[in-house]
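Input:
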Amino acid sequence: MKRRSFLKGLAAAGVVLPTGAWFPSCSADKPEGLSWDFDKVIDRFGSWSIKYGRLEDLGEKGSTKLSMWIADMDFMTDPLVSKALRDRVDNYVLGYTRTPVEFLDSVVSWEKRMHGYDVAREWVAPCPGVIASLNQAYLTFTEPGDTIVLQTPVYDHFRIYIEKMGRIPVENPLIEENGHYRMDFDGLERIFEEGSKVLVLCNPQNPVGILWDKETLSTLAGICERHGVMVFSDEIHSDLTLRGRKHIPFCSVSEAAARVGLIFGSPTKSFNFAGLSGTAWCIIPDREKREKLLGTLEKSKLDEPSIMSLTATIAAYSHEPVWLDAVKEYIQGNLDLVYDFFKDNDLGIKAVMPEASFLIWLDCRSLGLSQAELMSRFSDDAGIILNDGISYGTGGEGFVRMNVGCPRSVVEEALSRIRKTFG
Ligand SMILES: Cc1ncc(COP(=O)(O)O)c(C=O)c1O
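Output:
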């Protein structure tokens, strides 16, 4: 039987067939009927969430606490992403899957539209999660016992996994002045003279919320190149820029940056689907470095993302960022509430307003508490689970990180509890 009449027969029998396009087609506009409600409190207990699992483990004691720590949001994902996932499950065979060119093109087009960065398709590759990919990059470009430089306070999983990979994290703390942070270039020069091969850059910086400017990034690239140091730039928070600010991709700032830099990114933070692991990508302009890392991924069979992560990424990146703009505006409202609350209430706590993302860094140093006391006041007295500043390395003592990617009513409740506890 000819293929066409075979397919016709199936259709006549009521069998649903794919559209024929490799990926279900998506329009650039928000389809009618799709909506979101960021105010809605969604019960995540019992949903396998890590954020709420910590409360579940506390049993009765955890049930009234607010979970404002690990960096995912309490919102449903962009309805266009869930629609694409549903279409895929309903209409396609979930067999072994190769990465389609649409995935690479969606990253290229997204970087151009969002960040004005011209990326060649061959620079892009799918990656397992950002941390898993950084780990593979440590294995590829460094030896056991080598040092890797971090500018603290910075995302704690960098240090944790550098150590698990048998490498040694070395801190070059950021310089803080009145809530403003900058890189310590003299410190870097000193450390590099002792022979590090890699610096991990957090761009934008979590937990401090900084969008690094072009001058800082070009200076960093120049110093690194002079010392033969590669820069692994984690840009996972880059789409969550606030108040119309611009993110600058590290490799875009200069030829030196393109030579020394590897960018790792992912839509999982911005579109809130971190549970779809294996959803990340890298941009590596330098051919030799790219081929080396991709060789490592291929050898470990880490070069085949799941059909769901491919579908979600393409869906997220193939539309105008209507949902993303809306969620950012909502996040900004939450951040303003927290910032103004601490400005207007003299509780001994100051908020550092982030330039990107839904995490706010709270400076509690003037309370004069030990870190253990501070965490206990938030967790046991106020009933709010936050991230401990000290986990982010030197410069984190006396701080906590609060996640406001949640309904406004939760933020209001947290602030009311904080007033009672610290007032
Ligand atoms: C800066 C940064 N990088 C990476 C991650 C985790 O990325 P992945 O889940 O892709 O490993 C996080 C999560 O909080 C993060 O804040």
